[in-house]
Task: inverse folding
């Protein structure tokens, strides 16, 4: 959307990054306008990384006020900010990270509703929605896809986290052979086709081998999907032991409906369900840092059109410290 040229100051500031991405890739980042929706722990990490990396403009939308709970994972906030609009409290601190980045804040979500939606999305180059419910993600994803804008979603639930992206058709360059010395590598043009979230949720687990299914850590995937289903039914996330039985039943029903190989997983482990039932509403800074950091890195990778982005559903399990990428309904 922007048409700015890297200044001498920016080239000096971003010298190391330019040597990694290349000048043209950095120029694309410099001209990018990114919309981030909802300023919680995951978005805090995303914003820090993309602003420091030298994007052109950040548009930040959030209609909520800073709560005491936000102070634990939102390092843009201070005690005295409680009760203020999140975006208003954070704006100056975001700008201080990199004065060369334009920061626009919108203290309402009305721009994502009705006729205003198209104008909002057409004014940016990429959309990132964090800590949102499933139906809202599907709606915004479909709108972004209709308007030709890359879409990212991410968030955390206690010790679990996820990233999803829909880039429609994405073209990029990558080394032809990473096993040879860097000086012998040649970049080749590649492309990938991404489905929308609504289609990704119909992922054909029956097509996977036992080994492939196990590698995807389906227990974490279906726990997150069950949380989305619970949130859709109740309008909120589970909050304690009273919700364990329903969440367990929901997760197990989804596993059965997806026909996941029984040798790998018949039910989500009860200890995982118990843990997430009690912590789903809690943000843990280390989990936010990992998920938000990876989300930011992938956004920058997409803007730079260098190397393949996530394809297309990443989950993180803070209980083991492991992350897994699941190709959901991707060719």
Result:
């Amino acid at each position: 959307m922007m048409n700015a040229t890297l200044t001498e100051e920016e080239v000096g500031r971003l010298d190391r990054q330019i040597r990694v991405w290349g000048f043209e890739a950095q120029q694309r980042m410099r001209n990018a306008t990114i919309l981030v929706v909802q300023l919680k722990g995951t978005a805090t990490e995303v914003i820090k990384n993309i602003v420091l990396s030298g994007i052109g403009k950040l548009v930040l939308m959030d209609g909520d006020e800073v709560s005491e709970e936000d102070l634990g994972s939102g390092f843009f906030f201070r005690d005295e900010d409680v009760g203020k609009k999140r975006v208003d409290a954070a704006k100056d601190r975001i700008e201080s990270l990199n004065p060369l980045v334009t920061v626009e804040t919108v203290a309402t979500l009305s721009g994502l509703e009705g006729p205003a939606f198209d104008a909002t999305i057409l004014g940016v180059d990429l959309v990132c929605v964090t800590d949102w419910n499933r139906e809202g993600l599907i709606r915004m994803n479909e709108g972004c896809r209709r308007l030709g804008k890359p879409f990212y979603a991410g968030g955390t639930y206690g010790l679990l986290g996820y990233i999803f992206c829909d880039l429609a058709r994405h073209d990029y360059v990558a080394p032809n052979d990473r096993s040879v010395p860097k000086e012998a590598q040649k970049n080749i043009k590649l492309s990938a086709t991404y489905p929308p979230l609504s289609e990704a949720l119909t992922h054909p687990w029956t097509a996977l081998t036992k080994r492939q299914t196990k590698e995807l850590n389906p227990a974490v995937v279906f726990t997150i999907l069950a949380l989305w289903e619970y949130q859709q039914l109740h309008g909120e996330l589970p909050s304690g032991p009273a919700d364990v039985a329903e969440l367990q039943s929901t997760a197990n029903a989804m596993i059965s409906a997806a026909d996941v190989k029984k040798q790998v997983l018949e039910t989500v482990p009860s200890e995982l369900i118990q843990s997430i039932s009690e912590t789903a509403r809690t943000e843990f800074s280390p989990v936010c840092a990992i998920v938000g950091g990876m989300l930011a890195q992938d956004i920058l990778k997409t803007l730079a059109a260098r190397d393949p982005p996530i394809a297309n559903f990443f989950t993180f399990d803070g209980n083991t410290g492991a992350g897994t990428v699941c190709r959901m309904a991707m060719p």
Remarks:
- Strands lie at 33-37, 57-61, 102-106, 126-130, 151-157, 160-166, 169-175, 187-193, 313-317, 322-326.
- The chain has two domains: 8-173+285-326, 202-279.
